[in-house]
Design brief:
Blueprint (H helix, E strand, L loop, with lengths): L2 H25 L6 H23 L9 H24 L2 H8 L2 H11 L7 H22 L6 H24 L5 H22 L6 H27 L2 H8 L1 H14 L5 H37 L1
Helix pairs in contact: 1-3, 1-9, 1-10, 1-11, 2-3, 2-8, 2-9, 3-4, 3-7, 3-8, 4-11, 5-6, 5-7, 6-7, 6-12, 10-12
């Protein structure tokens, strides 16, 4: 079995676990507000990592960038809370489509914050992507299905999580992935406490099990996604990630009586096309740069 085939299977597993997690978010949303769900998600992730923390000891907390670690955790918890709110209030397929705008924000941040060169093709793709956002927002805020505020929350969440991605890229330059994950889980749980206290309610045992499963599937999703990118080619894996749109539409229709309309499908298609182009183009550019380095080294 080729690396891309194995990677595709890991990515499909990631899409499925992500859909299960977001379905649980929506199912429990009437009784457990987004800040409380975010706390349970972070607490579950921390509990899963406890064996690794005990095995590695205090070394797993060593960092040379404490302010970066803290700021990234603040962005992540804020983004997760807004994401949970959006998934609670919006149709699953529509929320998933807007979540892909994170790639658009990452491109903007790469140019503005990291001073990376962003060519006209990427700028054009970002512009087209936000046209798709406007199609979806204009429809939902103009009387379609009253999800304007949650849609804006998802856009804000994608922006915050784009900062989180940028922070992770910086941290992984001199930190192991385990250190980054442990700090994210630990600080995430601590930072989520105030929101949890303000919205607290004691869960029933069945609800506690579902809330814990939500955190477990979120952690598994991250592991499967990272593994898929490790064993498969990034350009080949990128389209597989969009299968969660299909899973979300199916689950939304079967369990929540949700059926995307034409405007939602058009807007989602524009967003997917633009973010997929950005992913594939960045992969092409990185391969070309690597080939140029190899050529220079052989001269």
């Amino acid at each position: 079995m080729s690396g891309n085939t194995r990677g595709a299977l890991w990515m499909l597993g990631a899409s499925l676990t992500f859909t299960i997690m977001t379905s649980l978010i929506k199912l429990l949303g009437d009784d457990y507000p987004a800040p409380l769900q975010a706390f349970y998600r972070q607490a579950s992730m921390l509990l899963i990592l406890v064996p690794f923390i005990l095995r590695r000891g205090v070394s797993v907390f060593y960092t040379t960038r404490p302010l970066m670690v803290l700021s990234r955790s603040v962005m992540t918890v804020s983004g997760l809370t807004l994401t949970f709110y959006a998934f609670q209030k919006m149709p699953l397929a529509e929320a998933n489509a807007l979540s892909f705008t994170r790639s658009l924000w990452v491109t903007i941040l790469a140019a503005v914050v990291m001073r990376e060169y962003v060519g006209p093709l990427r700028i054009g793709a970002v512009t087209v992507g936000f046209v798709g956002v406007l199609v979806m927002l204009g429809h939902s805020m103009g009387g379609g299905n009253s999800v304007g505020l949650p849609a804006l929350a998802m856009l804000a969440a994608s922006f915050l999580l784009a900062f989180s991605v940028a922070g992770m890229k910086i941290l992984t330059q001199d930190h192991s992935p385990m250190v980054v994950m442990v700090w994210a889980a630990f600080l995430g749980a601590v930072l989520a406490i105030p929101g949890a206290v303000l919205t607290w309610r004691w869960p029933t045992w069945p609800d506690l099990a579902l809330l814990s499963l939500m955190g477990v599937f979120g952690t598994i999703n991250q592991a499967l996604f990272i593994r898929g990118l490790q064993v498969g080619d990034a350009a080949a894996m990128a389209p597989i990630d969009y299968t969660r749109l299909v899973f979300a539409a199916l689950v939304g229709f079967v369990f929540f009586n949700e059926l995307p309309d034409a405007w939602t499908i058009v807007g989602a298609a524009i967003i997917v096309a633009s973010t997929l182009f950005i992913t594939l183009w960045e992969h092409h550019v990185s391969k070309r740069a690597a080939a140029a380095q190899v050529a220079q080294g052989t001269e």
